[in-house]
Amino acid sequence: MNLKKILSDFSDLIFPRCCEACDRSLVGNEATICTSCMISLPRIHSNGLHQDIIRYKFVNVPEVISTHSFLLFTKKGKVQRLLHALKYKGNKDVGLLLGFMFGQEMMAAGMLPEAELIISVPLHTRKRKIRGYNQSDLLAEGFSNATGIPWSATVLERIKHTATQTGKSKIARRENVKGVFAVKEHINYKSVIIIDDVLTTGATLEECVQTLKLAGCKSFTILTIALAEH
């Protein structure tokens, strides 16, 4: 047994590392999410009912050529715990890992979209300052690491601070995000991926599409780590 492993085992004994999904102790080479949870997280299959629900949310936006969510979000479930760790506990590794897993599994299934760039949904500077980072940037970076598609956190800017979308109807959500985004830099991309953490009504993502469309983008793939189950 080498010294590095001895020190690692000793550190785990004194400061145990725990899975962010189930809170069990991590062992060996496990990091952030235990092996059991990585296998058992509730995937959304490409030909199931949930995928139809996702498609329907963007049925009136013909420029959206494909939509995919990785996991199913349920209250008090493992996916909620992971996203809570990412957004409110400062665990950036959760975002990088979930994005990477999503990219890997899309590639393995032969479902990786042809796109020139991945664009993360931006936070307003006020909220980003409070949190210290944008969780969607981490998801985009992880997905990019897995697929090789470049990503950008500087194309879109959130120019208006809005009230939370939680509890609002789809119509109210659309009004709440109307005109909140702007294209920050000149772009020459026709096909892009927009990535975010949770899909609810799709209002925020739809507003991103409309803003980027005015800048010259022609086709869009919408990716979210989770679909909120209602």
TrEMBL record:
Domain named Phosphoribosyltransferase is located at 176-226
Q: Which domain of life is it from?
A: Bacteria
**One Pfam family here:** Pribosyltran
The entry's family comment says: Belongs to the ComF/GntX family.
From the Swiss-Prot or TrEMBL record, give the protein name: ComF family protein
**Taxon lineage:** Bacteria, Pseudomonadati, Bacteroidota, Cytophagia, Cytophagales
